[in-house]
Amino acid sequence: MSDDSKAILRSRNLSSNDTSGATGAIRTTADKTSKVPLLAVEHLVKNFGPIRAVDDVSLELYEGEVLGLVGDNGAGKSTFLSLLTGYYHADSGTFRYRGKPVAHTSPATSRRALKIEMIYQHLDLAPDLTVWQNLFLAEEKRKFKIILDKRYMIRRATEVLAELASKIKPDDLVGALSGGEQQVVAIARALLFERDIILMDEPTAAISLNKVRDVLDLILRLKSMGKSVILVSHRLEDILEVSDRIAILNRGTISHVLTNDHQMTITELAQMMFEGAIQRTVSVASNEELAEGRN
Question: Which of 31, 34, 142, 290 is 20 to 30 Å apart from 213, CA to CA?
Fold first, then answer.
């Protein structure tokens, strides 16, 4: 049997408890049946004219979980994230936070009702301002609603940076920080305002390779703090290292949800992103498996 066929057979074994009901789709779930999802989206649809960018997507995220989200270019990842953040409005579908329905209509709803913070690939930070000024930008703490409470903001910034085990100082200029350190600042803002869910879009794409490890450690630290992360990345090795489950988007639909056993290879995951290649290989693998069984 070829190495590719063995890889596909192994992926099929990982996915033996298919719950999707869709032909060719493979979905597995961690043992979370007794838990209420932190966030559940059900039957999300988003159309842009005749194009259906998100097609009947249902997905759950649990507390303290890292969920990897992968797919080819144009698979619908960015649109899906924009629906979660409220930047786009879904044409249909529902949102639940800790089991309760939420009327999700805007970025403000996303932050306050769904407790979501988005960390974009190109960080939305002001390089000419200090760390503490960035953390409280547009949400400054004031005394008597007039005077900036600088002492409070610096103290809180110090506390949040310490939670992330960072050596960054509140008075450091953001523009002087490395890409990885700026990621810390963006995440610190999410913690500062008590977001439960952090969406990370290609967090390691724009930083040096020697800083990638720092970002991955930061994601694991967020998990240890009980935060939930949806990680979007083309670096499949990052997805495989830190994710508890992996969801694969294919042309606007979720074709697979896999429990990450930390043994799957990049090749296996890449193959599962391209359904046509998988189906052909599975057919070959099944024939060889049958032939071996007859011997």
Answer: 31
- Residue-wise pLDDT for 2-59, tens only, equals 444 444 445 444 444 343 333 333 444 444 545 899 999 999 999 999 999 999 999 9
- Tell me the sheet residues that pair with 17: none
Residue 60 one-letter amino acid: E
- Burial of 64 per CB tally in 10 Å (0-12, 13-18, 19+): middle
Per the CATH hierarchy, to which homologous superfamily does domain 31-56+65-243 belong? P-loop containing nucleotide triphosphate hydrolases (3.40.50.300)
- What is the widest separation between alpha-carbon atoms in the chain? 83
195/198 Cα distance (integer angstroms): 7
Domain borders along the chain are 31-56+65-243
Helix (H, G, I), strand (E, B) or coil at 161: helix
Three-state DSSP class for residue 197:
strand
Which positions ≥6 away from 82 have C-beta within 8 Å? 88
